[in-house]
Amino acid sequence: MNTLTPKKYTDMYYSSCCLSSIATQYAIWLILILPTTSGLGHANSSVTSFECNVEKCSSAPREHIQYILKDTVFRNGVTEKLRNVVQIPSEMVDPTPNPVPDPRVQPEHHFWDPFRKLHQQLATDFPRVFSRLNVEIINEFSLLMTWEGSDRNLKPLMFSSHMDVVPVNPETVGEWQHDPYSGDLTWDDELGDIIWGRGAFDDKHRMIAHLQALEYILTFEPDFVPKRSIILAIGCDEESGGVYGASFIAALLLSRYGENGLYAVIDEGFTGIKEIEGVLAAMPGISEKGRMNFWCNLTVKGGHSSVPPKDSAINLVSTFVTEFEREQLLPIFSQINPAARLYQCIAENSVTLSNNLKRYFASAFNDSEANNHLLEHIISNNDLRTKYLFRSVKGVTTIHGGLKSNSLADFVAWSFSIRLAMEDTVDRTVKLVQQMLCTFARTHGIGLNIQGKQVLARTEKGILQVRYSAKNAAPISPNNAVWKMFAGTIKGLYEDCIFPIRLNGKHNLLVLPSVMTGGTDSVHYEKLTRNIYRYQPGFYTGRVVDNIHGPNEFIDVNTLIETVAFVYAYIHSVQD
Ligand SMILES: [Zn+2]
Question: pLDDT, tens digit, for every residue of 98-124?
Fold first, then answer.
């Protein structure tokens, strides 16, 4: 399994890592922006086996799905349940306070009060789930619910969600059109009913949908007993990496079911159904991009602002930031990236794409000229979210320095982040970033320390200290019977039940593999199954997705209801 534990490098590597001139500092970026497809973690993976058109699966009782989708009383009930939990500000912070407090340090421990309230609210709103299923509290605040299946030979299916939310930024609270924890319900001409509030989308609507699907079955299908166990895992700190939540749940599940002991895990995704080049596509993530975060502390001599030293800390850091931000990393379209297969299938089924472009997509993996043409097409015709499926992205994320306007800063702390293209690896990128930092330090005559190891000795001018965390891309879920059942269920649900309501007629849906660009709790569940799908039901709307983690987060009730319908349908599919 991939790990967040920092990599170790030999002293030999350190001694040879520093290039000597400023010119080479820029050359390093030229190397870093060049993608590679050789020597990669996924070198043996190819996503070309994924079919463009999976077979439809429609085994869930149609009348129940119609009820879930259409009944107004049901719809209003679910809406209220989501509003109830949005009104509880279960904010997560970095670093997360330990749920099991040290009474000497945190005697009051009020931080977790909203989570206690949230548990009570869920128990009130889902009485059958809480009384009939095995509900366990994991490490104080995460929840694990198990509906035991009748056939112990079948591996359990698990839905993962999280109850915590990112904090509302006090600086931008005035930009919210509705109080962030109002759970206000309003009407939108494009989307219908919408619910406002932090967490309405990320991720409380999924938590509610999972619980509601089970509550529905327990209420309206009292004779139903799953053959395959159904598990709900609700983490308490996904927004801080799942250290106290999902990691504890994963450890318990591993001891209970063993490696590869689960049938599949369904976790958060970004995109609902989207029309691309005239084709309707659902795009579950079968992997997550790798990610790296670097934290840098630069300490140099300060001084009075009337006699500034030549290289103040802010001066030095600004040269670093300018260089770091100068180049975009190059895009790449290869058979290692599930999103490449997605676009190949879109091209194959599109009636709006030119024949030339269709040919380019079809031969992209063998013909470099065709590959260049189609990348140009993807990059110039899509939003950022799509473009970033095909490249590593980097950015300076924080910067702090200086205390007073008449003193030169002697200390600047800054951080930067790199999200890796599917073709890139932590090892390769760490080496390149280390070279860059080395050259920066040497050029400015300062020492360098990386992950507690001395690379260049501290000088009288100062020192740069760097630490980082790194995680390779998640393993790619295979094309197998589990995928086909999952994708076929989405296809059946939308083509047979939802498109006739939402789009007034029959339409074809492609369910295609993609990549999750953000992180999820499922990173902790990689040992439990190879079949991890990051999927968001509903129709993609930029207005909704763009507000996640920012002011004015909201969700449309249609997406909430379709998520309930999907969970209901999928639970029934996997019983066959
Ligand atoms: Zn989330």
Answer: 998 777 766 567 899 999 999 999 999
